[in-house]
Specification:
The protein contains eight helices and six strands, in the order αβαββαβαβαβααα. By secondary structure, it is α/β, with parallel strands linked by helices. Strand 1, helix 2 and strand 2 form a beta-alpha-beta unit.
Length: 266
């Protein structure tokens, strides 16, 4: 067995053997985006990669080198693209990256590709790129399937209640807040500076987008809710339960697809 599931750490021959055995390729997709004064710009990348690694270990997969940059931060979900440090791609570039990577992994021989998203704004553009690629591959007669997901969709209500005890401000303002900060405290505590958390009320944003963005609507922290209640234990709980839910759901889907591909005709 290989000593790592990370593609960038594998040699080409081992990678080829794993693909030949049917290993799914899991692509972490993040962003370089501000997460307030207490978290690094690469938070979305690190969390997507950690979730991808757990999933790969559960399904005998390979974690591709992550897509580091993401689509533009939006004011109602990430504070806004106007904030310092946030470095973004336009939609056509994100679509092209997703399409190209799907085609590349198919060229290597992969038949199952999973895009694991860690940055809310990426999703629809990843979807478009993957859909274009799978349609093209189907037209060539190649049976390649893809799964697209955002890891927070696998955080269940019981876990939210256990962490927040009835004070969850809502997913729409969970940016730089308790969940991301707790996960980072568990995975990369050396990169978290709790002494710099700005304990402000959750953002009160309109239910519409206005362009150009109005910077005064974003809290001065850049975060949409406070991370003051974050803890390493909450991060451990989140990682364990979310990665288990991912493994159960995605593992079952990958196994179903594989068994369908191997089923005899007639």
């Amino acid at each position: 067995m290989p000593s790592t599931v990370l593609m960038e750490e594998l040699d080409a021959f081992t990678y080829r053997e794993m693909i030949g055995r049917g290993a799914p390729v899991i692509v972490p997709v993040g962003a370089i985006e501000q997460h307030g004064p207490h978290l690094p710009l690469q938070t979305d990348v690190l969390l997507a990669k950690a979730m991808s690694r757990r999933l790969a270990e559960a399904v005998d997969g390979i974690v591709a080198a992550p897509v580091v940059y993401g689509y533009k931060s939006q004011q109602r979900s990430g504070g806004g693209n106007h904030l310092a440090g946030t470095t973004s791609l336009d939609a056509t570039t994100v679509i092209a990256i997703a399409r190209t990577l799907t085609l590349e992994f198919a060229r290597h021989g992969a038949r199952q590709v999973v895009f694991l998203n860690g940055h809310f704004e990426n999703y629809q553009f990843l979807y478009e790129g993957v859909e274009l690629a799978t349609t093209e591959l189907q037209q060539r007669g190649l049976d390649v399937s893809a799964i697209l997901l955002s890891y927070w969709d696998f955080v269940d209500d019981a876990t939210i209640e256990e962490i927040y005890r009835g004070t969850f401000p809502g997913w729409d303002v969970e940016h730089g807040g308790v969940l991301e900060t707790s996960l980072m405290l568990h995975l990369h505590p050396e990169l978290v500076h709790l002494d710099r958390v700005m304990d402000l009320p959750a953002a009160q944003l309109p239910r519409f987008d206005r362009l150009p963005a109005r910077p005064e609507l974003t809290p001065i922290s850049g975060c949409l809710s406070s991370a003051a209640a974050a803890s390493e234990s909450a991060g451990r709980l989140l990682l364990e339960r979310t990665s288990a839910a991912l493994a159960d759901s995605i593992g079952a889907e990958l196994s179903t697809e594989l068994s369908t591909e191997l089923a005899p005709l007639g």
